[in-house]
Design brief:
Radius of gyration: 14 Å
Distance between the termini: 40 Å
Oligomer: single chain
Number of strands: 11
Strand content: over 45%
Order of helices and strands: EEEEEEEEEEE
Helix content: under 10%
Largest sheet: 7 strands, mixed
Length: 120
Amino acid sequence: QVHLVESGGGSVQAGGSLRLSCAASGSFVSINVMGWYRQAAGKTRELVADITRGGSTNYADFVKGRFTISRDNAKNTIVLQMNSLTPEDTAVYFCKADVIVAFRGTQNYWGQGTQVTVSS
C-alpha cells in the first residue's frame, strides 16, 4: 500500500504565498513522476506542475513564473512553492505519484487533497 500525505494548504490574501508538501510512504520500488493537480469548485481537475525523478519539471501556463515545484528523492517528497497567489488559484490541490510497485508495475496514487483559498 502506498500513501500520499499532503500538507500546507490554507487561506491567504491575494499576492500572498503558500507552500504545499506531499510525502509518499509505503511499500514500493521507486517513484517516477510526482506532481500537483488542482480542482476548483465546478471544474475539472487540472495539472499544476509535475517533476520527474531526474528533476525535469513541467508547469501549467497559468502558474509559470509564480509556482515552483521541487523534489527530494531520498525523502519521497515534493514541495510546491506558490507565490503571487490570486483568487483564481483557489481550489483543492491534490498530490499525484506514479509509483513502481513490485510485481504490479506502475500504479497511480493520489493524496486526499488540501484546500487553498485566496481572498481578494
